[in-house]
Design a protein that fits this description.
DNA-binding; mainly alpha; homodimer; elongated; 10 helices; 2 domains
Chain lengths: 196, 196
DNA sequence: GTCTATACGCCGATAGAC
DNA sequence: GTCTATCGGCGTATAGAC
């Protein structure tokens, strides 16, 4: 969409690098991945990597910002599309489960990685825009009475904790079935915890 | 208890090393901690470290095994002391919250770290004895009808996901109050999700 | 058992040709 | 913009005296 140029046929090295890095960071972790690994996986040279990125950390940072921004867009879209907490939270569970199946590397990078260990200047994930938006959604639900009166932090932990734990188990290959097989049970548990 | 010897006055270097490593691993992460850092924090020499441990990974492994074993003992004690799922699960929440406040480094190492990244031969945490015991406790509860009929994996994710998320927020210093301030709300949410 | 000194490989990053 | 060649440094681990 944004690479336009003329014929938009050529693979952008920058994207190849990001794709390779995401795959390796999620599979082996940031510190177990060398720049040489990325170089090999992306099929570019060391020089090309350092032409597009200042250093290894900058690659991880670009990935992180991209994913956070895209997640934020999706949550905003959900918020506009739906009209109450039940629909919103349910749609978020569905989104996260679908992303885990269809873009497991993206979810692994967001849900499993400890960004603060390799992006020291980054705020915790719980302070990022999409997670603040989630908090906002839940607070609205509590105010309107659609959700139980409870501490918003606990509501958040209950929702995102359950959700991310299921995702983690799936990514660790500890589930017998794909995630959508557990969707109903997961949603029921979350909703019983949060509804009045 | 176990160092006896004669007067049990001397600090064991091995314990000092483990203590220092635990602190640093939790604070900065395994990969951001060098053996020189551990050496400095424990106030011993490089030679002493390699006298007691084969390599850096072995230090992390010793910590992991110790903590897993101790956690397993605590869960077994809880299982013996209590007589139903309500009491058991509630006691586990209290245990984890108390440990987070009183031994934050231990909990940080268990809840936050990705052991598979630096202990490649280790099974996932969800396959370790204490977590299998937790699964067993929940399955018993489901069989006896004390917990809702639901997929045990989801029950587990709901319980441990919520719990560990609260702990994570506390360790990230994202909570305004200590954990026991949230105990009632947390437990209520978990129990509503799991009870019939 | 504990220490100091040091070997050495790996990896992030740069230089500079094309 | 992309490449190859290479450097400097850090960090793990060892050697060997005491």
């Amino acid at each position: 969409m944004a690479q336009s140029k003329k014929k938009a046929e050529k693979k952008e090295p920058k994207d190849e690098i990001l794709k390779a890095a995401l795959k390796l960071f999620t599979q082996k972790g940031y510190f177990n991945t060398s720049v040489a690994d990325i170089r090999r996986e992306a099929d570019v040279s060391t020089g090309t990597i350092y032409h597009y990125f200042k250093n290894k950390e900058a690659i991880a940072d670009a990935l992180y910002q991209d994913i956070i921004a895209s997640l934020n867009d999706s949550l905003k879209e959900i918020k506009n599309r739906t009209k109450n907490s039940f629909e919103r939270l349910r749609a978020i569970v569905e989104l996260f489960f679908a992303l885990t199946e269809d873009a497991s590397e993206v979810m692994g990078f967001i849900v499993l990685a400890h960004h603060q260990e390799f992006l020291p200047s980054e705020k915790p994930l719980s302070m990022s825009p999409p997670f603040l938006l989630l908090t906002e959604i839940m607070q609205e639900g509590i105010r309107s009475g659609e959700l139980r009166r409870m501490d918003p932090v606990v509501a958040n932990a209950c929702f995102y904790g359950t959700l991310s734990r299921m995702i983690q188990l799936r990514l660790e290959d500890a589930l017998e079935k794909p995630l959508d097989w557990y969707l109903l049970d997961t949603w029921t548990a979350i909703w019983k915890a949060l509804s009045p």
